[in-house]
Each structure stands twice: as structure tokens, then as C-alpha cells.
Amino acid sequence: MKGIIFNIAEKFIADRFGEEKLEQILSACELETIEPFVGPGTYPDSDLMEIVHTAAEKVGLPMPEFMKQMGHFTFFKLAERYPNFVAPYSNPKDFLMTVDNVIHVEVRKLYRDTQLPVFQYREPSENELVITYYSKRKMYDLMEGLINGVAEHFNTRIEQRHSRYEKDGHEFYDYHLIFS
């Protein structure tokens, strides 16, 4: 996992729950990484999961809710850092359809060792989008929070329906989005 995600997770915890709580959480974690997380660095997925599980427990939130809130926060931090990916779009559907084919392509150019989720898109109607998500990390709740952030950014209501299924031995997750 890239360091930028660790940095955003730390910022989320500090902003929402305080610097002291962040320090308590990091002190309680058993991490493989000893040095501070640096944006372009690559770190074990297990370290991020240790931080978010510990944080959810210490702040008294169920893990899915913690991840949704962190996903919402993450969208805004990424949009702030990379405004050129968001600025050209006036609606959430058009933006979301660029994530895999534009944004992830550019991220791979910058960070060749990155492991990003894979998205496939279907458009059942003009105001619907189905995003099929695949990642070995299975960060479904984070993705839901990211979509909530996109909805807020574009000042649009997005109803989400979810389904998880297996195909050819791999787990997939569909986000059926209805825009209004």
C-alpha cells in the first residue's frame, strides 16, 4: 500500500479524533514499519489494517463505519492533492467512470509497484452506474465512503446498492449507483 494512503489515514484520525488519540493508536499498533510513512513509499497492507482496526476500536466505531468515514475523508484529500483529476467533470457519474481508465493509469505511471483495485463499468440507464470492484484488499466500505465523498463534492444524491459474489474463484463487489 502506498504511503499516501497511510498519511491520509493518520490525518483522518488526527482531524476527527485528535493528535493525542492518533498517538495512542499508533503506540498500540504492532507494525512492521518502524520509520514514518512517506507518501511515495510502499508499506505492508497489514500495517494499514492494523492502524484502522486499532483506531476503530479505540474510537468506538464499528469497522465498516470507520472505513466509510475514512473513505469519505480520503476522497476530499485526494481531490485536494490532485485537482486536475476532478476539475474537468461537472457530474459524479462522468468522474467515477474515469477512475480506472484515467486516474489509475496515471497512478501506475507514477508508482509502478502500486496495486490498485480494478473497476469495470456498466450503465443500465442514464442515471445509473454499476461499478464492479475487484481487489485482493477487499476494502468495500472504504469504497462506499469514497463514493459518498464524490456525491458530496458534486452536490448530488447517490443511492448505493451493493452485492458481493464470486466468479472464477475471485470475490467481486458491485456498487449499483443511482444518481438523482
Quick overview:
It contains 7 helices and 4 strands; from the N terminus they run ααααααββαββ. By secondary structure, it is α+β, with helices and mostly antiparallel strands.
Main traits of this protein?
180 residues, alpha+beta, 4-stranded antiparallel β-sheet
Shape: globular
Supply Rg: 16 Å
Give the mean pLDDT: 96
Number of extended strands: 4
Strand content is 15-25%
Secondary-structure element series = HHHHHHEEHEE
Structural class: alpha+beta
Low-confidence stretches: none
| Range of helix content | 40-55%
User: How far from one another are the termini?
Assistant: 34 Å
Written description of the protein model:
This protein is α+β, with helices and mostly antiparallel strands and 180 residues long. It is 50% helix and 18% strand. The chain is built from 7 helices and 4 strands. It has helices at 3-17, 19-28, 45-59, 63-81, 92-96, 99-110, 140-153, and strands spanning 118-122, 128-134, 158-167, 170-179. It has a 4-stranded antiparallel β-sheet with strand order 1-2-4-3, covered by helices on one side. A hairpin with a 5-residue loop joins β1 and β2. The longest helix is centred in the middle third of the chain and has 19 residues, at 63-81. It is globular, with a radius of gyration of 16 Å. The mean pLDDT is 96.
